[in-house]
Design goal:
The protein is α/β, with parallel strands linked by helices. The protein folds into 2 domains: 237 residues, Aspartate Aminotransferase, domain 2 (3-Layer(aba) Sandwich), CATH 3.40.640.10; 117 residues, Alpha-Beta Complex (Aspartate Aminotransferase, domain 1). Helices cover 35% and strands 15% of the residues. The protein has 9 helices and 14 strands. The strands form 4 sheets. The protein has a 7-stranded mixed sheet with strand order 1-9-8-7-4-2-3, with helices on both faces. A 3-stranded antiparallel sheet has the order 12-13-14. Helix 1 runs parallel beside helix 5, helix 5 packs across helix 6 and helix 6 runs parallel beside helix 9. 48% of the residues are buried.
């Protein structure tokens, strides 16, 4: 522990877990070609939306027979659109280990009121037993728990011979983790995570099995307009060709296209994953030496390389009351914020007290390196205050 002020500051102190850091070199000028003042249903408007879909599909390596669409209301909208449209015919297996997973449990049990459901929970920092998933049932889960820093290690627990569909919230995993798309029937994410895009737009990825479910199943509850993906029992294919259900922001779209092009230029998906892994490794090396902090995810195989969550293990801290722990952790984050070296790194409000540092692909490892001495500095100031 040291009270000496570090000499080097992160060049870009943006470590928020959403909206996340813009890509390196980003300036507002990249938006100058945005199709403003034009209808998104115009020929060039639809072409620009279709370009985003096609580039997304190519960059992520999504199977050719899968559909990709742009939908309203960010990742939440995409997930609820899928759940409201497809759940009901089979028992649902729900896996939750942090706050957003709990949201999908609430949607299923309290809002859709599906009595035929099974819940598998784990506390923050751990995973439930994924092998409990029944191939006959539908499955709802996250690939990466943004507020716990815990991800599924792989898709081996999902059988290719499943009868139900798998619905996966992949919002802080897409573009940073190796996702076996054939294991997922529905996957969702938002622009503002790993590629550092802007909010309010969701991406919905559907397998042929998911499309078949949509056409065969009629929900027992009212369906809002922004959730409707079928008409006359047939999938509305325009959704997956750039004909969005509601009006998208062409400014945000231009920003997303810029991020996709940057990702392609630096080497594609492998390069994006490598950048996130390198950032995680920098923090892991620091954790080994710091003595006062550790990963919330004890098991390295399930540790997130994007939303990295840290807990405080120093006896001074662990001997505090829960209220005092929460206050001390917030003080560390606010101290870093006031110094301008790490913005928005407080743990999620429902998570255990600690820090959450975004390490996604738009963050430079040199900035994570520069951050680590400041973490020790802030800890020393709070402990001795």
């Amino acid at each position: 522990m040291t009270g000496k002020t570090p000499a080097v500051r992160p060049a870009r102190p943006f470590f928020s877990s959403g909206p996340c850091a813009k890509r390196p070199g980003w300036t507002p000028e990249v938006l100058s070609a945005a199709l403003l003042g034009r209808s998104h249903r115009s020929k060039p408007g639809k072409a620009r939306l279709k370009e985003a879909i096609d580039r997304t599909k190519a960059l992520l390596g999504i199977p050719a027979d899968y559909r990709v669409g742009i939908v309203p209301a960010s990742d939440t909208g995409a997930m609820e659109m899928a759940m409201w449209s497809m759940l009901g015919p089979r028992t649902v297996d729900l896996f939750a280990w942090e706050s957003f997973g709990e949201d999908w449990v609430t949607d299923t049990v309290k809002q859709l009121r599906l009595k035929d459901s099974r819940l598998f929970k784990a506390p923050y920092g751990e995973l439930p037993n994924l092998k409990e998933a029944d191939p006959k049932n539908d499955t709802v889960f996250l690939w990466n728990g943004t507020t716990s820093g815990v991800r599924v290690p792989n898709g081996d627990w999902i059988t290719d011979a499943r009868e139900g569909i798998t619905i996966c919230d992949a919002t802080s995993a897409a573009f940073a983790m190796d996702i076996p798309w054939k294991k997922l029937d529905v996957a969702t994410f938002s622009w503002q995570k790993v590629l550092g895009g802007e909010a309010a737009h969701g991406m919905l990825i559907l397998s042929p099995n998911a499309a078949a479910r949509l056409e065969a199943h009629t929900p027992a509850w009212p369906m809002p307009k922004i959730f409707r993906m079928t008409k006359g029992g047939k999938l509305v294919e325009g959704i997956f060709e750039g004909e969005t259900i509601n009006t998208p922001s062409m400014l945000a779209l231009e920003d997303y296209l810029d991020a996709l092009k940057w990702a392609e230029e630096i080497g594609g998906l492998k390069a994006l994953i490598a950048r996130s892994n390198t950032n995680l490794k920098v923090l892991a090396n620091w954790v080994k030496e710091c003595g006062w902090a550790d990963f919330l995810a004890k098991d390295e195989s399930i540790r997130s390389n994007t939303s990295v969550c840290l807990k405080i293990v120093d006896p001074w801290f662990t001997d505090l009351t829960p209220e005092a722990q929460a206050e001390a952790a917030k003080k560390i984050a606010s101290t870093l914020d006031k110094e301008g070296v790490a913005l928005d790194v407080a743990a999620y409000r429902a998570a255990p007290p600690g820090l959450r540092i975004w390490c996604g692909a738009t963050v430079d490892s040199s900035d994570v390196e520069a951050l680590t001495p400041w973490l020790d500095w802030a800890w020393a100031k709070v402990k001795t205050s």
